[in-house]
Amino acid sequence: MKITITVENPTPEALEKLLALATMPAAVVTAEPDDRWTPKQARSYYDRLPPRAQQILLQVVHGEGECAAEELKANGRSLRGSTGAFRRVLSEGKRTGLWPDALPVPLVSHIVGGQLKKLEMPGRGTGHYALTAFEDGLCDLRTGG
User: Fold this and answer.
1) Does 5 have pLDDT greater than 90?
2) How far apart are CA 115 and CA 53, in angstroms?
């Protein structure tokens, strides 16, 4: 039997009681922080993005977590309006309860002198780096990439 319990912002007392359940024979307890992307969330997020934002996200994932703006604009493709979708879709998912409120935006823009220079996944070298979750969640889309 497998039981999954989700507790948002547990009190110390509630957490203590839940952990006591873990002492039952053959109990296995795993905890997933709600501020980290999972492959399932990454795929769900990707599926809700508009097509151009999906292309951009795939280019960033293929670029190992970053992609220069000039590369994203190759072949005359505009970025106008595309990058705003990353925050908008995340906010909509949080508002509808699809994703936890602590989940960070997976792509950030680097602007220098008023010009977009690159998009990247924040948190490289930390536990909050989302690249692996997106690589795993989008692996079926990247085969030819």
Assistant:
1) no
2) 19
